[in-house]
Amino acid sequence: MLREHIHVRQEPGRRRRWFEDEGLDLIVWFDEAGGVEGFQLCRNSEALTWRRQNGFTYGRIDEGDDTPLKNQTPVIVPNGAIPWSDVTENFKARSAPLEPLLRALILERLAAKT
């Protein structure tokens, strides 16, 4: 089940919440008015990101560290078709502890695929 990290570094002018379960992370960004601006589901080195302005993007997380002598920043690179039903079922199975409105919003976006 997803559990919230309490001490999450915040960005100026925004609020961010981070939830984690074994193999699944959920990050939710809020606008200044408290509305959900976007969310990201990360699992198996893949990230599905939804932003209010742009809809969904999907990619593989490239850790950037191909040698122990360099410490590069991870980036998300394109990774083909989105496995909608797998992502949705995985989220449903782990998201019961979330506030009902937040869970419903994420499930609605996943169902709409926009």
The portion of residues assigned to helices is 10-25%
- Helices and strands, in N-to-C order? EEEEEEEHH
Nearest-angstrom radius of gyration?
Answer: 15 Å
Counted beta strands: 7
Shape: globular
Mean of the pLDDT scores? Answer: 88
Give a short overview.
Helix content is 21%, strand content 37%.
Q: What is the secondary structure topology, with strand pairs?
A:
Layout: E1 3-4, E2 15-21, E3 24-30, E4 36-43, E5 46-51, E6 55-62, E7 75-78, H1 84-94, H2 100-112
Description:
This protein has one domain. The chain is globular, with a radius of gyration of 15 Å. Helices cover 21% and strands 37% of the residues. A hairpin with a 2-residue loop joins strand 2 and strand 3. By secondary structure, the chain is an alpha+beta fold.
Can you tag this structure with a few keywords?
alpha+beta; 7-stranded antiparallel beta sheet; single chain; 114 residues
